[in-house]
């Protein structure tokens, strides 16, 4: 069974630029999560989708971050414009349904200069 | 607001020794407590998990001890091996599968 796929793996941008990350969850998984992991900290949930609907986006900085999950499969997370403090690893995870084990992808390491 | 506090931030243990990582929480609404293992350049992977109605769970060399009254839980890694060198995160779950992670513990097992 293929795992959660993410791209790109690394991205370097200047502040005020835009960036987008892509996630392809495990086939058949209805629930998809985006986390932000700042160096030396635990992952922090940004947004959670159930199929193509948002379940929780309470910790998503909506003035600059946006996410979508069209057709209930792949998802993209966008930052526009980026700030220095957005430098982090952005992890995507998926689970079969709510309350089931979450499987994480390898993450995208973003550096904002 | 950090809802799950994890300690220590790092630890070094000799091969064959015991690694112990502690976590504390405040929110009594948490209903599930997983531990994740993360290697450099990889995403976290579920290691072992426990529900609050159980005081201990063991899987191979990994054991979770859970103290509901103290709102604390810990991970014990017995007979630590160099391959166990990784960062470990405790987490706690609210309804809807929303996980709150601790700050992480970097474990180094010396051969």
Topology:
The complex is a heterodimer of chains A (113) and B (111).
Chain A: E1 5-7, E2 10-13, E3 19-24, E4 31-37, E5 44-50, E6 53-56, E7 65-68, E8 75-79, E9 88-95, E10 103-104, E11 108-112
Parallel strand pairs in A: 2-11
Antiparallel strand pairs in A: 1-3, 3-8, 4-5, 4-9, 5-6, 7-8, 9-10, 9-11
Chain B: E1 4-7, E2 10-14, E3 19-25, E4 33-38, E5 45-50, E6 56-59, E7 62-67, E8 72-77, E9 86-94, E10 98-101, E11 105-110
Parallel strand pairs in B: 2-11
Antiparallel strand pairs in B: 1-3, 3-8, 4-5, 4-9, 6-7, 7-8, 9-10, 9-11
Structure characterization notes:
The complex is a heterodimer of chains A (113) and B (111). Chain A is mainly β and 113 residues long. Chain A has a single domain (5-112), classed as Immunoglobulins (Immunoglobulin-like), CATH 2.60.40.10. Chain A has no helices and eleven strands. Chain A has strands at 5-7, 10-13, 19-24, 31-37, 44-50, 53-56, 65-68, 75-79, 88-95, 103-104, 108-112. In chain A, the strands form two sheets. In chain A, strands 2, 4, 5, 6, 9, 10 and 11 form a seven-stranded mixed beta sheet that branches. A four-stranded antiparallel beta sheet of chain A has the order 1-3-8-7, with no helix packed on it. The model of chain A has no long low-confidence stretch (mean pLDDT 95). Chain B starts with a strand and ends with a strand. In chain B, 0% of the residues lie in helices and 57% in strands. Classes of the chains: A mainly beta (113), B mainly beta (111). Chains A and B meet through strand 5, strand 9 and strand 10 of A and strand 10 of B.
